[in-house]
Design goal:
190 residues, alpha+beta, 5-stranded antiparallel sheet, 11 strands, Gyrase A, domain 2
């Protein structure tokens, strides 16, 4: 990696050290991740997919993962792209998008969002304590994602396994989201 001379501030997650749940649900903060909010027209989706190393899904409520990156379809020309493993200036999502040569809009939202991992047999019930979305496997299968509401806040929800979800939330609402999930986890255990 080339030394760019740029030093990135390290921000401690607003959820650092938090974990919880119940006998039916496990709650934990997800590891640090890089994120971009990406807007691109249909004719440039292929170029951005190639540059990012993950196919941008083009069907509603779907996601795709490859090379440590996950792309979540949020709208006809909008995706949230998550890169696991933190922020690497030499291999960043922003740099990859810029190198695509395609017209697009990419905004680094790495420090805006945090994620809560919700797993266990009561995971869907814990989320449904504040989210009206049908989380049955038939309606919301593994890999499904959506922008939705949770209590009084907006979240992006991704089903990562039959009994596991990733809840992306703005860091300023993360305490609220974690608290509401903890209440839902307790209820799911009853």
């Amino acid at each position: 990696m080339v030394d760019s001379g740029i030093e990135m501030a390290t921000r401690t997650s607003s959820l650092f050290g938090l974990h919880g749940g119940s006998s039916a649900v496990r709650l934990e903060a997800a590891p640090a991740a890089e994120r971009i909010s990406l807007r691109v027209h249909a004719e440039n989706v292929s170029a951005l997919s190639g540059a990012l190393g993950v196919d941008l899904p083009v069907k509603p409520k779907t996601s795709a993962s490859a090379n440590g990156r996950t792309a979540l379809w949020l709208g006809p020309d909008e995706w949230l792209v998550i890169g696991e493993g933190g922020y690497d200036i030499g291999n960043s999502l922003m740099q990859a998008a810029a190198n695509s040569g395609a017209l697009h809009s990419a905004t680094d939202v790495s420090h805006r969002n945090v994620a809560i991992l919700v797993s266990g047999p009561g995971a869907a019930a814990a989320i449904n304590a504040g989210c009206p979305q049908d989380l049955s496997l038939k309606a919301f299968p593994v890999g499904a994602c959506s922008r939705t509401i949770f209590g009084k806040i907006e979240i992006v929800l991704l089903r990562t396994a039959e009994d596991a979800f990733r809840v992306e939330v703005w860091r300023s609402f993360s305490d609220y989201a974690f608290g509401l999930l903890a209440e839902g986890a307790r209820d799911a255990a009853l």
